[in-house]
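Give me the 3D structure for Receptor ligand binding region domain-containing protein.
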Amino acid sequence: MLETAFKSSVDVAKAKMIASGVELDVISKIVPLYDSFETQHHVCEMLAEGVTGMFGPSAGDTAPIVQSICDYKEIPHIQTRWDINQKRGSCQINLYPHPSTLAEALIDIIIAVDWKSFTIIYENNESLMQITNILKSPPTNHPIRIRQLSPGPNYRKELREIKDSGETKILLDCSFGILSEVLLQAQQVGLMGSEHNFIIASLDMHTLDLDAFKYSGTNITGMRLVKPLDSEFQDTVSQWTDNLSPLEPDDKTVLPETIQVRM
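Predicted structure for Receptor ligand binding region domain-containing protein (263 residues):
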């Protein structure tokens, strides 16, 4: 999907730049998910071809080597992934909000809904870093409890303990891949009644099917970066869907795409 979105964006850019005489060429390479050495080799090959910008990869294990090379060569490196180590002032342009910015947004929401005390549920070290950013500027002087999810796929033990504690306000910070299952198990243990309130940290929550929870009475608040009802957004998604290949790349590979600009 990311590659399709990228190529569709290039097509739109090409159409807008016809009169300028600038030609955009796309070079794509498939690299192993965890092999930084081979990724470095492919990046150097693309640089030898004269690329002036790098997109991806989406994997956190190989992205740092790409970023390091781009910083050294002083060419833009555009990312779309959550990066807890994102540094301002580098050659990286990350379409995902900076961790501190996202933490500020969550704090603003907590203040707006007037939570006095609440429990933060986090998944792993990455989400723990996000929690740390929130705790540096706590939105309340009241207690903030912190609980980590088990490795899964069964999260009921800790969810039931939170329910038994009487907690009704929960900030949930977990990956989108397990978000639906965590919410479903929270409902199963009685943690999603009319008295419960959730704030979801994932920016992809708006793509989740919440029909299973609509009669529970639970207040679920989330954030998003797009306007799904915007006509331009819908046209873009429709174009991506039309161009989407029926054969998706294996999930063990990622695609670092680049743009080469020829004047």
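Residues 2-16 form the longest helix (15 residues). Let me know if you want a second pass.
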